[in-house]
Design goal:
heterodimer; A: 414 residues; mainly beta; Neuraminidase; 26 strands; 12% helix; globular; B: 192 residues; mainly alpha; two-stranded antiparallel sheet; 8 helices; 2% strand
C-alpha cells in the first residue's frame, strides 16, 4: 500500500480501483443502492417535517383588574437555606400557585450549588420551604457524564400543562463550559423526567446558557432564548419540538457584547428581543425585532435604557404596552427599576424603583445587589417579579394592573 | 492509522494495551466511569470518529487495514474543510451560522449527497461508509444532538485532520528544502 503522505489530491482521485471483478462491481452497486436509500430516507424526513411556526398570542389572559384595588406586596421566596442564592425563575402552576426555581450553594462556583424549588400559595401568601430539586450528582447520573456544577434556570408551562425546566450545568471551567439541560414534569412539579442535554453548539457543545424565559410558539412548540459565552458573547433563538428536541436556531446577535436575551412576542409574527449589554460605554440595553415569527431578526441597536452588564426581564400587557425590569445604572446592580413603553412607541419611561437603597445598612458588609429579575404575569392578571436580593435571598414582588395604572398616572418614580 | 504504524510493538503487547485502556475507560470512579469524565468535556464524538477509531482498533489488534490510504487522505481533507467552514462561525463572528444548516437544510443535504456520490464514483469507500453510517445514526437519533453536523464531524477529528495534514505538509516542505521535492498536497496534476 502506498503511504498516505506520498499521494497528492489529484492523484487520489485518479487512482481509482483497476479491479473490474464481478465481486467489486457488485460491492460498488450495493454501496450505491445503500447510499441512495439513506439519502432518500433523509430527504423524506426533511420534506415531511412540519413547518416551523410563529409565536403564540401573548394576549390570551383574563381581562385586566382595574376594578380591584391596587396591590403591591413584597416577600421572600427563599428562606436562607443556602448561603448564596441567585437567578430565580417562576412559573404558574395549577391552583393559581407559583413554582419558583433558583440556584443556591455556598458560592456561585461552588460544587455544592443545586437548583432549589419552592411553591407559593396565593391564598396564604406564603412560599413553602425550599427543597433541593437538582444537584450536579443527579444531573451527572442522568447524563452519564461528568458535571461539576449548576447554574441559571428558566421554566415554562405549556398548553398541555407540562412544566419545562431548562437549566445550565458546567462540566469544565466556569460559565464558558456551560451546557443546557432539560427536565419535564407532567404533574406540576411533583415528579420530573431525567435530565436531558440540549446540543446547541458544534464546539464540544460548550458555553450555551439560558436566562430569558422560554416562549410558547403557535403550534404548541417552544422557543428558547439562549446565549453563548465563550470567546464570543451573542444571543440565539432556539426552537424545540414537542419532545424537546432542538429543530432550528437563529442568531439574534454576533460578536462579544450581547447576552441573556429575552423575547417578548406581540403577534404571531412580531416580537421584540432585548439583551444585556457587555461591551464598551455607553452601556445600554440592546434591542432586536422580528416581523416573520422569529426566523429573521434585525441588527441589535442600543435603547435609551442603561445597563451595567446585568440581566433584564420584561413582559407585554394586553394592549401591547411593554414592561421592563432592569438595573438603571451603567456600573452597578444597586438599583432595580420598572420601565414602561407604550405600544408603538420607542421611548421608555421609568415608572417605579423597586430597589434604590444607596446607603442601606441591611446585611452590612455585603454588596448591594438586586439582579437577575424574572417577571411573569399569571392568569388572573397579577404580575410576579422574582430577583436576587443581596445574593442571600430571592425576593418576590407581586403587583396588579390597578397598581400599575396608578404608577402610570404618577409623575414620581418612587 | 494504518497497521504498519502500530507494528513497532508486538501483536500481544498491542492487544494487552488495548484491553487495558478499554477496561480503565469503564472503571467507575465516584459513581462515574472514566469515559464519563472524558465525555463530560468532549461530548459525543461523531460517527466518523467512531468508524475511524474502530478501524484503527482492528488495524492495531488484527494487523489488517480496513481502508485504503487515499480514501483516508480525502476524508481528512473533507473533514478539515468542513471544520474550517463550521467552527469559526460557532464563535459568533457573523450572523451566518453554518451549524443551523444541520437542522435539515435541503441545500446542505444536497451538497452532502453530491460529495458522497463523487466519493462513490472515485471508489473512496471509506467516505461513503462514514456518510451512510452518520446519516443512519442521525435518522435513528443515537445521540442527544439533532444536528447532522454532529454526526459527521467533531472538533477532535477535525483537529486530528489539521495536525495530520499540516504535519505532512511540513514534513514535505522540509524534505523539499533538502531535496527539491514538492509536497504531495501542493503538487500539481502532473502526477499520473
Amino acid at each position: 500500500m502506498k503511504e498516505m503522505g506520498s499521494l497528492g489530491p489529484f492523484e487520489v482521485l485518479q487512482r481509482r480501483s483497476n479491479s473490474t471483478s464481478p465481486r467489486n462491481r457488485l460491492v460498488k452497486r450495493v454501496l450505491l443502492a445503500i447510499l441512495l436509500i439513506v439519502f432518500g430516507s433523509l430527504s423524506v424526513r426533511i420534506f415531511s417535517a412540519p413547518p416551523l411556526s410563529g409565536f403564540a398570542s401573548p394576549h390570551s389572559r383574563s381581562s385586566t383588574t382595574s376594578i380591584t384595588p391596587p396591590l403591591f406586596e413584597t416577600r421572600f421566596a427563599s428562606h436562607g437555606k443556602t448561603e448564596m442564592v441567585h437567578s430565580p425563575a417562576v412559573v404558574e402552576i395549577a391552583g393559581n400557585r407559583l413554582q419558583g426555581f433558583w440556584y443556591g450553594g455556598t458560592s456561585e462556583h461552588a460544587k455544592d450549588v443545586a437548583i432549589y424549588t419552592s411553591v407559593f400559595d396565593p391564598q396564604k401568601g406564603l412560599w413553602s420551604p425550599e427543597i433541593s430539586l437538582i444537584t450536579a450528582e443527579s444531573t451527572q447520573k442522568s447524563l452519564h457524564r461528568y458535571v461539576k456544577k449548576l447554574g441559571n434556570v428558566v421554566a415554562l408551562r405549556d398548553q398541555n400543562n407540562q412544566l419545562w425546566l431548562f437549566y445550565v450545568s458546567v462540566s469544565v471551567g466556569r460559565w464558558s463550559g456551560s451546557a443546557i439541560n432539560l427536565m419535564i414534569s407532567q404533574d406540576d412539579g411533583e415528579s420530573w423526567s431525567p435530565s436531558r442535554r440540549l446540543i446547541t453548539s458544534p464546539l464540544l457543545n460548550l458555553a450555551t446558557l439560558v436566562k430569558g424565559p422560554p416562549v410558547l410558539l403557535e403550534d404548541g412548540t417552544i422557543g428558547l432564548p439562549v446565549y453563548h459565552e465563550f470567546l464570543g458573547r451573542f444571543g440565539e433563538f432556539v426552537r424545540l419540538d414537542r419532545a424537546g428536541r432542538v429543530v432550528q436556531k437563529t442568531r439574534l446577535s454576533r460578536g462579544s457584547a450581547s447576552l441573556q436575551p429575552i423575547i417578548i412576542p406581540d403577534t404571531n409574527r412580531k416580537a421584540l428581543g432585548l439583551m444585556r449589554y457587555g461591551g464598551p460605554a455607553p452601556r445600554r440595553i440592546l434591542s432586536v425585532e422580528t416581523t416573520d415569527g422569529g426566523f429573521h431578526w434585525s441588527r441589535p441597536v442600543k435603547t435609551d435604557l442603561r445597563n451595567p452588564g446585568a440581566a433584564i426581564a420584561g413582559t407585554r400587557l394586553q394592549n401591547g404596552d411593554l414592561l421592563l425590569v432592569f438595573n438603571d445604572s451603567e456600573n452597578a446592580r444597586d438599583d432595580l427599576s420598572l420601565a414602561y413603553r407604550p405600544s408603538g412607541d420607542k421611548a421608555w419611561r421609568i415608572i417605579y424603583r423597586f430597589e434604590f437603597e444607596k446607603e442601606t445598612t441591611l446585611l452590612g458588609g455585603r454588596t448591594r445587589v438586586f439582579s437577575y429579575p424574572y417577571l411573569v404575569r399569571t392568569q388572573n392578571g397579577d404580575f410576579h417579579l422574582l430577583y436576587t436580593w443581596y445574593r442571600t435571598h430571592i425576593k418576590h414582588i407581586q403587583f396588579n394592573q390597578a397598581w400599575l395604572e396608578q404608577r402610570l398616572r404618577s409623575p414620581s418614580r418612587l | 492509522m494504518t497497521a504498519a504504524r502500530s507494528r513497532r510493538y508486538s501483536l500481544t503487547t498491542r492487544r494487552l494495551l488495548f484491553f487495558s485502556v478499554f477496561v480503565v475507560a469503564f472503571l467507575p470512579l465516584q459513581g462515574l466511569s472514566m469515559a464519563g469524565y472524558v465525555r463530560g468535556v468532549t461530548g459525543d464524538v461523531s460517527v466518523t470518529t467512531l468508524i475511524l477509531l474502530v478501524a484503527a482498533s482492528i488495524s492495531c489488534l488484527m494487523d489488517r487495514d480496513l481502508y485504503d490510504s487515499r480514501s483516508f487522505l480525502v476524508l481528512m481533507l473533507l473533514i478539515l474543510g468542513g471544520g474550517v467552514f463550521l467552527y469559526p462561525f460557532a464563535l459568533g463572528l457573523t450572523y451566518f451560522d453554518p451549524y443551523a444548516l444541520g437542522y435539515g437544510s435541503k441545500a446542505f443535504v444536497a451538497v452532502l449527497f453530491l460529495l458522497s456520490l463523487g466519493a462513490w464514483y472515485f471508489d473512496l469507500y471509506l467516505i461513503v461508509a462514514c456518510v451512510i453510517f452518520a446519516i443512519s445514526a442521525y435518522m435513528i437519533g443515537i445521540y442527544e444532538s439533532t444536528n447532522l453536523w454532529d454526526y459527521l464531524i467533531d472538533p477532535l477529528i477535525t483537529s486530528y485532520a489539521l495536525f495530520l495534514l499540516a504535519g505532512n505538509e511540513i514534513k514535505h516542505l522540509l524534505h523539499g528544502f533538502s531535496s527539491g521535492a514538492r509536497s504531495p498536497l501542493t503538487r500539481k496534476a502532473s502526477v499520473r
